[in-house]
Amino acid sequence: MKYARLTKEQFEELHQEFINFLATQSITADEWANLKVNKPEVAEMELDVFSDLIWEGVLNKAEYLEHFAPQHMYLFHLDEDNMHAIVVNVKNDEVDITTKEGYNWLRENLMDERVEFLQADKAYTEDKNLDKFKMIEQGASITKGELYQYFYNLIN
Question: Distances from the Cα of 107 to the Cαs of 1, 91, 102, in angstroms?
């Protein structure tokens, strides 16, 4: 398995897609029920293959990631060849931008000397989607990029 198995809730949301996937494997509903009981290792393998297919599709479409920490905001634009990162550092230990109050402080004090903006490009490894997935595993979220665009326009 390349990524991570989908959660029970995710499988429930993707129930029809999973049925279609099984159909492409020529597995009927009766055969699936039989596999789960008599060959659980094969059923587990099918769940893993389906999970990887879903992740691959999601990661192929992902264009922006965001990750918040108490004093840092990491915003990524996932280009074809590399990731462009904007990092917002808050050099004020009394502010935690993961809270509503801290985020509001940042919004009101963007030009404060305790707010620092950094930009960098990072090349992907040989597996671009795995790079994206690892960032998600570390807490990043896929977004539409509004915050990235806002800060990109602000600092460029």
Answer: 41, 14, 9
Q: Which two tokens stand for residue 112?
A: 């404060």
Q: Which residues pair with 116 in a beta bridge?
A: 89
How do residues 13-65 score in pLDDT, each as one tens digit? 999 999 999 999 899 999 999 999 999 999 999 999 999 999 999 999 999 99
Q: So where are the chain's domains? A: 8-61, 64-155
Q: How far apart (Å, rounded) are the C-alpha atoms in residues 82 and 18? A: 32
Q: What is the DSSP string of 66-104?
A: EEEETTEEEEEEE-SSEEEEEEEEE--TT--TTSHHHHH
pTM of the model: 0.85
